[in-house]
């Protein structure tokens, strides 16, 4: 059985994903989410009118999963 580190409360032991997306040129976007599939879909459909929709950030190039939020 896996055990959580004593210093991390039960409520914070969620899966988090760090990810990098691009549009194929020289612009990268680095993000963090607890639902990678939903977040990539939001980027691709430009549902949040900010940086990623302005620069057409739609291609996932890397993702990694962890048990604690990094920031």
Overview of this protein structure:
- This protein is an alpha+beta fold and 71 residues long.
- Helix content is 18%, strand content 30%.
- The protein has two helices and three strands; from the N terminus they run ββααβ.
- It has helices at 36-44, 51-54, and strands spanning 16-22, 28-33, 59-66.
- It has a three-stranded antiparallel sheet with strand order 2-1-3, covered by helices on one side.
- The longest helix has 9 residues, at 36-44.
- It is globular, with a radius of gyration of 15 Å.
Biggest sheet: strands, sense, closure? Answer: 3 strands, antiparallel
Quaternary state of this entry equals single chain
The total count of helices amounts to 2
The secondary-structure class comes to: alpha+beta
How much strand content do the residues show? 25-35%
Would you report the number of β strands? 3
Q: What is the ordering of alpha helices and beta strands?
A: EEHHE
Mean pLDDT: 83
Helical amount: 10-25%
Provide the gyration radius in Å: 15 Å
Q: What strand order characterises the main sheet?
A: 2-1-3
Tell me the distance between the termini: 28 Å
Task: Return residue spans where pLDDT drops below 50 for at least 5 consecutive residues.
Answer: none
Shape: globular
């Amino acid at each position: 059985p896996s055990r959580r580190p004593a210093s991390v409360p039960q409520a914070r032991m969620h899966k988090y994903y760090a990810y990098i997306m691009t549009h194929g040129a020289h612009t990268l976007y680095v993000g963090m989410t607890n639902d990678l599939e939903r977040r990539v879909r939001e980027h691709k459909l430009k549902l949040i009118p900010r940086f990623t929709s302005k620069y057409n950030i739609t291609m996932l190039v890397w993702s990694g999963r962890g048990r604690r939020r990094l920031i």
